[in-house]
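Q: I'm a student working through a structural biology exercise. My instructor gave each of us a protein and asked us to get a predicted structure, then write a short paragraph describing it. Mine is Ribose/xylose/arabinose/galactoside ABC-type transport system permease subunit. I'm not confident about reading structure output yet, so if you can add a plain explanation after the tokens, that would really help. Here is the sequence I was given:
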Amino acid sequence: MLRLGISIGMLSGIILGLCLKWIEWLTGKQVYTLLLNVDFIPIIGPIQWPEWVEFVFHLLIAVAIGIVFVYIVGKLNNMSIRKIVLCSFLLTLPTIPLYFPLTLLALKPTPAVDDTVAIFYWTAGHLIFAAALVFGYIILKRRL
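A: Happy to help. First, here is the predicted structure for Ribose/xylose/arabinose/galactoside ABC-type transport system permease subunit. I'll explain a few features afterward.
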């Protein structure tokens, strides 16, 4: 169960990261920068981390969500696909409004707190993350 949660979280986190990196590259909206930003966190914030380390920080959060997702789905035996999807979206939902405090706390340039296009990209990326949790669960459950 733990291995499945880690795998699903990694897969979903990588998909989210790649989506937001591609969006940032394509549009210039700094949603990937916001996703990886840790500059406001005491102790680790002042350090100039390479991008890959910041991505690992992001993946740690994604893995935690993946583990919780698999735990909940596993505890509620015989869940329908509809309930699995609902569980995934409910777990992911709190990450969407994080856009606002993360933007306000960021020291490096990130999208404006009222940038509706960036908010849309951020939301879309996280909804893709939620969908990746579900598809990852369906595919990897049989293999792990």
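A: Here are two points you could use in your paragraph. Helices lie at 2-27, 31-36, 51-75, 81-92, 99-105, 116-143. The chain has six helices and no strands. It's a good idea to check both against the output above yourself.
Q: Great, thank you!
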